[in-house]
Amino acid sequence: MNNPLIYIAVIGAILVLAIFLPRWVRRSTDRAGGQAGRRYATTRLTGILDELGTTLVLHTSETTAREVVDGVVLQQPRKFTRLEGGDYGIRFVEPDDAIVRLVDDEDGARLEVERIREYLGVPNTSEFWADLRSGVSAAAHARGIAVSPGRPLHHRRDEATGTWMSD
């Protein structure tokens, strides 16, 4: 053990590890973190789009359904806006971050999300859409109007504008 060559080799090995080990650890943790982040974002996006694709059918005329929806929208002006043309806006940042329409359905009038604007890579209005649906459902039941889930919608993303449109 009196040979200095062994000490020099151990010190050299420690220096080489000190140089290359942090890079290897950083690369492998970045790769693992990126994969986990993409999996989480995909799962989250799927849930959000499923929620925004949910529709609500009010079993009444479009005029009566519009009165019910108007009443709910006017009660929460920070979340919802009545837009020109009879559409409704759901606000995340802007009053029209999601456009909701009341359309004719064979069973009455269907409330659905037509267009969604995304911020930070995902649509952020799904909770407000759930609030609007539950508010409209409760208001319709209070007026004796039957409500049921409608056919689900699917949205596709426009890469140029970052908006999601219903098919």
Question: Please, could you describe this protein's structure?
Answer:
By secondary structure, this protein is an alpha+beta fold. The protein has 3 helices and 9 strands, in the order αβαβββββαβββ. Strands 1, 2, 3, 4, 5, 6, 7, 8 and 9 form a 9-stranded antiparallel β-sheet that branches. The radius of gyration is 27 Å and the shape is rod-shaped. 23% of the residues are buried.
Task: Write a brief structural summary.
This protein has three helices and nine strands; from the N terminus they run H-E-H-E-E-E-E-E-H-E-E-E. By secondary structure, the protein is α+β, with helices and mostly antiparallel strands. Strands 1, 2, 3, 4, 5, 6, 7, 8 and 9 form a nine-stranded antiparallel β-sheet that branches.
Q: How does the major sheet shape up?
A: 9 strands, antiparallel
Q: Helix tally?
A: 3
Series of H and E elements: HEHEEEEEHEEE
Strand content: 25-35%
- Whole-angstrom Rg: 27 Å
The overall pLDDT, averaged over residues, is 88
How far is the first residue's CA from the last residue's CA? Answer: 77 Å
Low-confidence stretches: none
Helix proportion range: 40-55%
- Please give the number of β-strands: 9
Structural class: alpha+beta
- The best one-word shape is rod-shaped
SSE topology sketch:
Elements: H1 4-52, E1 56-58, H2 62-75, E2 80-82, E3 88-90, E4 98-105, E5 108-119, E6 122-123, H3 126-142, E7 147-149, E8 155-158, E9 163-166
Antiparallel strand pairs: 1-5, 1-7, 2-3, 3-4, 4-5, 5-6, 5-9, 8-9
Helix pairs in contact: 1-3, 2-3
